[in-house]
Amino acid sequence: MPGFQTWVEQVTRSKVLRVASLPGGAGRRRYFRVYLADSSTRVLMHAVPEDPAILPPALRDSTERLEFVEVTRLLERFDIPVPTIYATEPRERWLLLEDLGDVRLCDLAGGSLRDRLHESAALLARVHEIPRNAALSLGRAFDEEWVRFELEHFLDHGAPASLQAGLRPAIEQIARCVASLPRLLCLRDYQSSNLMVDPEGRLRVLDYQDALLAPPELDLAAFLYDSYLEMDPGLREELLETYERSRGVRVESASLALLVIQRKCKDLARFRFLTHVRNDPRFAPYEERARRAVLEALPEAADQIGAGARVLVRALEEASA
């Protein structure tokens, strides 16, 4: 990535003393902490486009856009605590961001974690109160095609080959049911690995560039059944109550269960793909939590899925072998 230090010095008017690579997630984006002569730091994001083959159809035509910038501007309008963007270089896909530190919610434990999770539940309610019309410019919706695409990934990497044909009716039914639910602005990956505690102790949000119109249960499924945390059912109920109280709504349990199944089937397939195809062992520990989450949610959503639910149970049981 030649030239970025010169660009950083131009936009900050401070000499770059040192650059350190930061650990990334499952995507292709790369992050670097830049240490400046004025004693401050910045984070440089290199927003490398994802391989279109692994993207849902709605995202394949937008790989040239700096979607992180678009969504940041939207969230800033409604006082959602996102990082400040200091500068962008669209041709190189460089973004110079506020340094939020290294403390993620998944790094916390005990009462500190519990308190921050309740704060995060209330913050998610604020995100879901953003007027739907404000998000229409993003041009993305969690429609039947998108849902089906993610579940096809589960067929490829999360289910035994012998059961794939039997699972297709379940996939079609889940896609139809999810697509029929009301939609509002969702961040898509609202989970502990993307929620930070900055150096001043403030809760901040990251990794929201794929925000879209979707059932709010999509974010709730990612948050309440976070594969990066071991969360007991009692805490999960408390967090759901905090969210409902903050928004002044009741979440339909069957709809939440349906989105837990969809989201965690997708996550299970992603973890298995990264572990066994990309040979990235970081994600192997999270496979079992995703699998258990689907099994836990299936009884509540079985009527919506129909006979395919039994095949899904068999697939998940074999996936643990």
Describe the model:
The chain is an alpha+beta fold and 321 residues long. The chain folds into 2 domains: 4-98, Phosphorylase Kinase, domain 1; 105-319, Aminoglycoside 3'-phosphotransferase, Chain: A, domain 2. Helices cover 48% and strands 13% of the residues. The protein has 12 helices and 9 strands. A 5-stranded antiparallel sheet has the order 1-2-3-5-4, with helices on one face. Strands 6-9 form a two-stranded antiparallel sheet. Strand 2 and strand 3 form a beta hairpin. Helix 6 (144-157) packs antiparallel against helix 7, helix 7 crosses helix 10 and helix 7 crosses helix 12 (308-319). The N and C termini lie far apart (43 Å). 35% of the residues are buried.
